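re: that complex we talked abt at group meeting.

here r the seqs, copy pasted straight from the sheet so there may be weird spacing, ignore it
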Amino acid sequence: MTGDVETSFRVHAPGRVNLIGEHTDYTGGLAFPMAIDRGITLSAQRRAGRIELTSADAPGRLIVELPFSGDPAVVEPQWGSFVAAMAQQLGSSDGFVGHLVSDIPAGAGLSSSAALECAVGRALGFEGTALELAQTARRAEHAATGVPTGIMDQYCIAAAMQGHATLIDCGDLTIEQVAVPDEIDVVVRFIAHRTLLGSAYADRVAECARAEAQIGPLRDATLDDVARIDDTTVRRRAHHVVSENRRVRDFASALRHRDYATLGRLMVDGHASLRDDFETSTTQMDAAVDELNGRAGVFGARMTGGGFGGCLVALCEPGAISDGWVVTPSAGARVLPPAD
Ligand code: GLA
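got the structure back, here u go
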């Protein structure tokens, strides 16, 4: 028994930390996230015509009648919006009664919502490719929140491979799994809760669209193209995106060559670009990142995820950072073997 449910199947979906490639996905750029060994596990049994779900982290019972035809954004409890939206996207009429256990804090920028969407997709029997799962989950995220997020989180969580980070080309939607050596630590530290709802995330998406209206796809733009943008703010946003795409390429190459000094420098540069050009950091985040970047054994640290709070990510020599979670690269959303 798990919760009050006799389990007949279990699904696990990891959270993710983005190593580099921030705010590049919605202009078809490059992102380099890694699924982590923290995530959401759903234990359930089949139930025709509805989803009933409880969560170890929140009171209340979610009940979604299937097929779901309402507005997922107003479903209560609020985390149920992602569940209802996913069932709606899939047009499911058969659901499950189950229980959720998570060790990814919500609002930490570790993609708990994308993990929930992908877990529910697998629990509803979705059998398409990882890309198709990600595209469905992204539509569900938009329906649940109205925030125009990119595909990075869902694609990483759907497609990840144990021991690897996932280099995503958000233009042609191809991926490359790059091994993360176990001779370095990847550390995540929670800084502050954030929500992208009502944040400047949508403003950033719009500013990037304005840049593209003037110079064409940022994916193909050069820094000389960026210099032609009239509006100072839009120019700085575009400067971040174009330089960040370059950093992702260089980071992937440095990771393959185990060139940790270069990885660190790219993380420091990436953070400065988010702080100064894209303006998605906070003073609290900057202080924590700066302190780590000055610490012995730390190759580099930066904010990770959408910004305005959330977590930082650092790469370091083993044991160099003890005040954070050492995370390991994990496999994507999957049906688990039955529990003993
Ligand atoms: C959030 C979004 C992603 C991406 C990041 C920033 O996590 O969900 O699509 O845009 O912010 O890199």
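couple things i noticed - Residues 18, 22-23, 25-26, 149-150, 152-153, 305-306 surround alpha-D-galactopyranose (CB under 6 Å). The chain has a mean pLDDT of 95.
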